[in-house]
Design goal:
Chain B: Residues 104-129 are annotated as: Disordered. The complex is a heterodimer of chains A (1013) and B (129). With 1013 residues, chain A is α+β, with helices and mostly antiparallel strands. In chain A, strands 8, 9, 12, 13, 14, 15 and 29 form a seven-stranded mixed sheet that branches. Chain A has a six-stranded mixed sheet with strand order 43-44-45-42-36-46. Chain B has a single domain (3-125), classed as Folate-binding fold (2-Layer Sandwich). Classes of the chains: A alpha+beta (1013), B alpha+beta (129).
Chain lengths: 1013, 129
Amino acid sequence: MTQSNRLNQGGRIDRSRRLSFTFNGQQYMGFAGDTLASALLANGVDVVNRSFKYSRPRGITAAGPEEPNAIVQLGATEAAQVPNVRATQQALYDGLVARGTNGWPSVQRDVMSWVGKLGGGFMPPGFYYKTFMAPASMWMTYEKFIRKGAGLGRSPSEADPDIYDHFNQHCDVLVIGSGPAGLTAALSAARAGARVILCDEQEEMGGSLLDSRESIDGAPASAWAEQAVAELAGLDNVTLLPRTTANGYHDHNFVTLHERRTEHLADTAAAAGREGEVRARLHRVRAGRVVLASGSHERPLVYANNDVPGNLVAGAVSVYIRRYGVVPGQRLVLSTNNDHAYRAALDWQEAGREVVAVVDSRAKPDGDLAKQARDAGIRVITGSAVMEATGNQRVSGAKVVAIDTERFVVTGKVETLECDTIASSGGYSPVVHLASHTGKRPQWRDDLLGFVPGEVKGMHVAGGAHGVYALGEALADGAGVGAEAARAAGFEEAAAIAVPDVEVRHESPTSALYQVPHEKPPLRAPKQFVDLQNDVTAAAVELATREGFESIEHVKRYTALGFGTDQGKLGNINGMAIAARCLNRSIPDVGTTVFRPNYTPVSFGAIVGRHCRDLFDPERYTALHQWHVENGAEFEDVGQWKRPWYFPRRVNGKRETMHEAVARECLAVRRGVGILDASTLGKIDIQGPDAREFLGRVYTNKWAKLAPGRVRYGLMCKDDGMLMDDGTTSCLGENHFLMTTTTGGAAGVLEWLELWHQTEWPELQVYFGSVTDHWATMTVTGPDARKLMSEVTDIDLDREQFKFMDWKEGKVAGVPARVFRISFTGELAFEINVQANYAMHVWKALFAHGEKYDLTPYGTETMHVLRAEKGLIIAGQDTDGSVTPEDLGMHWAVGYDKPFSWIGQRALTRPDTAREDRKQLVGLKPKDPKVVLEEGAQIVLDPEQKIPMTMMGHVTSSYYSPVLESGFALAVLKGGRNRMGETVYLPMSDGSVHQAEVVSTVFIDPKGERQNV
Amino acid sequence: MFHIFCPYCQEYREEEEFHPSGQAHLVRPADPASVSDDEWGDYLFFRDNPRGIHHEMWVHRLGCRKFFNITRDTTSYEILETYRMGEQPSITAANAEVRREQGVQTADGGWQTVGAQPENSRLNEETPS
């Protein structure tokens, strides 16, 4: 196919660099500097997509981010798939592959089109929900086919080969948009010395200057833009970010900018010859001041069949002709309510194609451009508008009629003009989206017939973004606003730059026209589209108001107006105007909806940046991690720690299952000796003359008499009396203690101690330091533990000399160590603490000596089974923030007679915490020993009771015990301690019911003799 | 990206070093045993949720580990001042408008109108209007 619509000269493309690309399976040629949209138009491609709901053929409508139809799926390979790309914003590159996101099996022959054709009239808003919702269970089935038919693009099923990153940036003045106002604003601020970031979403900076017919200082506007950009590029205090969309405007001038780094060059950075570079970058900018110079979007008029390919907004016609050397048709009819749009007709005629007519809704347009058109011999039909387009896959004509905009009726006879392109302009809407992100509602201006941004602290608006449209005025406005922003950012000397010379044009006022009246009543006329992406028609908006939806927010949700990926950039104002007309209210009275970030779709890669895969979250390793890896450990995440979960061995050539490995590890500890890497336990060093007093206030039990060399288990409550953490604390010296916490609770407990010390008891002299990482902890436990330890340490291990809950200092494997006789398994246990960098040496020495005892490493799963067999709790598993020490049956660890009212004490006597029937910790023994109850399973007393049953509690920990050869569990049960021996029931989701007996929490060695052998 | 002035470090630090820690200026009854269940319940469970000026406790968790106070506007999320534990706010719901006008906005130092910089102690000495 040839580029039949390409002009031989003109435009900002490089005709010497030909690019080949594929669209919907067909190969085409374009030039460097093209967008995908301009290249498609150059090749005469009319239908680029099928519409979302009615499956109507759609063509390219606009030239920027507001494009509602040309939404494509990009990517030559599966891994490079990108959905939701606007063809108007995608730079063309060699080898680009894209297809329309809608249309199945193809946009030309669409199986869903019968729905639009036959059923179109019967598809009011809410059609899918009203029709397919019943039965509800079938919706998922219907939806699959509806989605396939409608198409919304798809995400790739293979991993993205590209990388993305984030930049944090600070600047004095951030200028968003590099059109006339943006450029003069940036120049004013930059020349004053402010650090300026200037971003623009287009491939090239200059905005509307690039397609302007006007002159600046006697030269083409685009030449002045090039010169201004060149000056800014040469300044050290200016960062230019082209191809960068300001996508979100957040609190306190925090703006997110999305920069396309290699997306415009190829499918992947590697394919672009830029291997290792980032595909897209998210700039997180904290700006002193923001200058919003985002310009405006032209509104199309709403008329019948305004969606047939060949209907464009007028400004886009000029952009395609002047920037890309592409005329998107042969014969043009322009329908307008303002002067500025006339340039489309002038550009069209100068390109050598026929302008059939300009249809102006105003009675007497007499502006300079209108005169120029008349002088050029163009037919101007006044007081009229295009009422309806004819044609199917391409416009074939325009039905023009005289209208009365006040009464919203046609007043004359319909004339049909033969043409293949209809350009329309209903005026201009300032791009208020970013300002709206901050929560500030846009303000309606009757003189502009548009919304302008609300007032945002730290934001200045320049140019078209607040309705200053004329070129000379926009340049001056930008210059002044840029200086004002710089002054506000502390550059007091900042002054507006001298504004270049621009000829002033006379324009006659724009008339208020949004929807063109049709000879048939709105609900009978052919479809008049308001929101092209979501297939929302004027009739749908009208129907919504008739059905009682009066708030624009409700109209939006009922019709889906503005819900597309384009967020209604083209259609919203027209929709509001139609709703206002139907409700007989003013547009500001109907109000506007809120725009939210992001302004245009952003790929997840850019949002995630480097925070993925291994860098998603920091990982913490113990000093022994490498040994665990080499010995085949499976790991479990505990907070950020990687802890060995279990150590599967190969038995008879087969790798053990977790169940087999845990059973073996449990028996090794109960019968021989096992070893656990417990280094992750939180460790807090506490010193000071008031350390002991402080411990007495934060723990529930007593600390006044704990002598150096002794260890005590403590419970820590919040002030509501609920357990928050537990652990042992050892007295290292009269004023020196070492507190241990749960692995996950370490940081929280340290902060908790600081909180109480700093805010309640600053008079206490006590200091806290985290020493978790300083010490490695190895637990040697089992009946053979003492034998093994005696081979590696000089500490006297005699059971009378080194009692349970003692700690001693000495050498282990020749290394200084603290050894604690505490047990979390119920067996004889020694917890060895050594400086972390000696840990591997000690660990290996233990294994060298431990071989003859079959020293068995065990992981967290075995640790859980062993402690649960002893009824030892894990804070956060057996407790959940609603469990008191009394509920746990730990009355022995609560010092009610301590002199100071410790944290949580007062709450324990509140009526609710003192109730007898609170959930209490009990053991459960399943009647069927093979059953391992589900953790979280609910306990009931009467399994025959009708749902909802009376729930009495739930299982908190449940395992299989190889020693008991039975499942067993810990649970919290209402009034549990008075229910010993009772049978309870646990109904499961599959309808089965387990039976269990309420027993003591201690399943093994109830007298605690084994830890003292 | 957002900077908060730590009144102990005496400098602006990254927001990621800080963490909120609930309502400021809560008074724990000095003798818990002597208060009624209702009073103790109020202390435990009831918190203000104002629209506008709010005093909050924050902690410089990844810095000096000190707790301090922030006066913040819950409608605009502006931090109006930061001050040490034990000090009283100079900006309150009663005088917020006056104080805000006196403030200065720094270009890149976040949005504290008056931080607990040296001028804070001076502001503290003034009698609130």
